Amino acid sequence: MAQVPATRYQSDGNAIDYTPGSAVTAGDVIVLGSVVAIATEDIAASTLGALALDGVFKVPKITGANAVGTLIYWNPTGDPVGGTAGSGAATSTAGSLKQLGYVAVASLSADETVQVVLVQA
């Protein structure tokens, strides 16, 4: 039996379609199974939009310094520096969290954000 060929080219893989159950704001970090993506535009509830799978993004982080190249994980209930407690933050502590990417620019403990290169594990 012959191999079934792959379907035609769909996209460059930099983003995926996403229809949220509730409104999403540009910059929101979204965890879909083992994939962590970021909304680059506002998406209304029940409306098709897209989430970025790669690129460099500034994301809120917990207290602590991060060196370039450090693996970063997304904690959806993390406490960001200068932000709302429990609203989500990047951390270098893996635990059972999903990998977001790695640090592109070193950050200090008091910095509110860290620049992360998205990487899909």
Task: Using brief descriptors, characterize the structure shown.
121 residues, mainly beta, 5-stranded antiparallel sheet, 4-stranded antiparallel sheet, 9 strands, 36% strand
Helix-strand makeup class: mainly beta
What is the 3D shape?
globular
Total beta-strand segments: 9
The averaged pLDDT comes out at 92
Please count the helical segments. 0
- Output the strand order for the largest sheet: 5-9-8-6-7
Give a quick account of the main beta sheet: strands, pairing sense, barrel closure. 5 strands, antiparallel
**β-strand amount:** 35-45%
Q: Measure the end-to-end span.
A: 33 Å
What is the CA-atom radius of gyration, in angstroms? 16 Å
Q: How much helicity do the residues have?
A: under 10%
- Poorly predicted parts: none
Q: In sequence order, what are the helices and strands, one letter per element?
A: EEEEEEEEE
Total individual domains: 1
Topology overview:
Elements: E1 15-18, E2 29-32, E3 35-39, E4 49-52, E5 56-60, E6 71-75, E7 89-91, E8 98-105, E9 113-118
Antiparallel strand pairs: 1-4, 2-3, 3-4, 5-9, 6-7, 6-8, 8-9
Polypeptide structure, described:
It is a single chain. By secondary structure, this protein is mainly β. The protein has one domain. Helix content is 0%, strand content 36%. The protein is built from no helices and nine strands. The protein has strands at 15-18, 29-32, 35-39, 49-52, 56-60, 71-75, 89-91, 98-105, 113-118. The strands form two sheets. Strands 5-9-8-6-7 form a five-stranded antiparallel β-sheet, with no helix packed on it. Strand 8 (98-105) and strand 9 form a beta hairpin. The radius of gyration is 16 Å and the shape is globular.
